[in-house]
């Protein structure tokens, strides 16, 4: 079953759920999950591939340590640089997703319209639905391409978010979120 699982992931154009893989293989989800774990361990020991998880879906990707070589081969090395504003916005979305543009603007202290458009066009962010507030604002979230760009298999691999309480209070006061 491992080889069949690997073959399906290889030809899949998009990330797949465990249920989709189970249905394609005619196997119970538990067998597919254990097969994915075994495949992931195999790639971790040696290989140019890895399994990448995002939002309950799995995809076969190039191993993160080979990203530079693959980017060079594909001619992508010049386009993979992101501005400071883009990195800042990506970090905010990654740690707070799903999040609205106004919430991103409050954290950054500047308008994020342009940088959000750029990140959406690069495929690093996507619209993840609508908020419940007035005007039903768009909720932004990261994409599998975000994980690939940063060499992550899952959003859970990101380092823990640490911010000193004083920093948060300063930001909130500056943006008028706390009363004096």
Distance between the termini: 63 Å
Please work out how many helical segments DSSP would assign.
Answer: 9
Total beta-strand segments: 6
How are strands sequenced across the largest beta sheet? 1-3-2
Quickly give the CATH architecture of the largest domain.
Orthogonal Bundle
What's the level 1 CATH class of the largest domain? Mainly Alpha
CATH topology of the largest domain: Arc Repressor Mutant, subunit A
The low-pLDDT segments are 175-180
Strand content: 15-25%
Number of domains: 2
Radius of gyration: 19 Å
Order of helices and strands: HEHHEEHHEHHEEHH
Structural class: alpha+beta
Please render the helix and strand layout as text.
Layout: H1 2-11, E1 16-17, H2 18-25, H3 29-45, E2 49-54, E3 57-62, H4 67-74, H5 84-96, E4 99-100, H6 101-108, H7 113-121, E5 125-130, E6 138-142, H8 144-149, H9 165-174
Antiparallel strand pairs: 1-3, 2-3, 4-6, 5-6
Helix pairs in contact: 2-3, 5-7
């Amino acid at each position: 079953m491992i080889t069949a699982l690997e073959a399906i992931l290889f030809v899949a154009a998009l990330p797949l759920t465990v249920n989709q893989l189970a249905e394609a293989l005619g196997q119970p989800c538990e067998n597919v999950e254990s097969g994915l774990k075994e495949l992931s361990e195999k790639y971790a020991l040696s290989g140019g591939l890895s399994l990448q998880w995002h939002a309950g879906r799995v995809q076969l990707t190039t191993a993160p340590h080979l990203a530079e070589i693959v980017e060079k081969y594909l001619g992508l090395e010049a386009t993979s640089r992101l501005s400071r504003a883009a990195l800042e916005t990506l970090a905010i979305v990654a740690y707070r997703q799903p999040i609205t543009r106004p919430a991103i603007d409050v954290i950054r202290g500047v308008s994020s319209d342009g940088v959000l458009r750029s990140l959406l066009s690069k495929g690093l962010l996507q619209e993840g639905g609508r908020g419940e507030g007035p005007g039903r604002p768009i909720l932004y979230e990261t994409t599998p391409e975000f994980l690939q760009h940063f060499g992550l298999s899952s959003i859970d691999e990101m380092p823990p978010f640490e911010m000193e309480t004083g920093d948060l209070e300063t930001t909130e006061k500056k943006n008028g979120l706390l009363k004096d």
